[in-house]
Amino acid sequence: MNWFNRVRNNLPFLPKRTTDENLWVKCPNCQQMVFAQEYHDNSDVCPRCGHHGRIGADRRLAMLLDEGYEVLPIPEVQEDPLRFRDSKRYTDRLKQARAKSPHRDAFLVGSGAVDGRAAVIGVQDFGFMGGSMGMAVGKAFCEGAEKALGRRCAYVVVTAAGGARMQEGILSLMQMPRATVMTRRLKEAGLPYIVILTDPTTGGVTASYAMLGDIHLAEPGALIGFAGQRVIQDTIREQLPDGFQRAEYLHKHGMVDMVVHRHDLRRTLADLLGYLEPQAAA
Q1: Under a CB-based contact definition with an 8 Å cutoff, are residues 71 and 59 in contact?
Q2: Residue 163 region, left (φ>0) first, then alpha (ψ -120 to 50), else beta?
Q3: Which regions of the chain carry the CATH code 3.90.226.10?
Q4: Most buried pick, 86, 167, 229, 278, via CB within 10 A?
């Protein structure tokens, strides 16, 4: 051992300071580094450019519903009915997703009130297998609608999905007509059905219950569409316009009623419920 190592090893070094890896967040839009606590306190909206980040189902329910709301249990369905396997087994993908999430699947329903106005809110969590729509999501959506029918109140759905869950094949696609039937039952009962479109809302979800609301709200910059932009562009062989499939573009062309900042979403939703809630018979 040379003299430098001997001296270095005998020096009374203090313990190495540790730095939290999650101390900073890099905004995917403006690429600026934002203090994580500031980002979280701002509802995961970039304070520099206003980009709306993705948030989980539990946090979304807490943002929209009054305290004391009830969370409905996620329904249990047959898992891996097709014994599907791609690069790994479907059962392994489910285990991996559940290890990162407090819930068994991608759709969570809360029953309570928004500023005192009764409502049932269903939220898709993009963090669970891209919010993909399988049998559990379809059944949870339907049970949320049943809850709203039972309470005679509005049903609000916050969408965020990459589409149907391919590992369940035709069984996942069958959730589209199931959900559509439930939206029809809400309409026949005279109950409001409101959809809040968040980033991203695509595929079979867009082709079914995401576009069947009485009113459609969207968060700024949310990607909303059926097929991807590259697929559309390669099919029609034309350059797509700037902002295509974004919330503002859909609002301009009449597919979205309002683009609402996340900070204003709860108040806007409460106002809409006040306008639309069913009136008691005289």
Answers
A1: no
A2: left
A3: 54-276
A4: 167
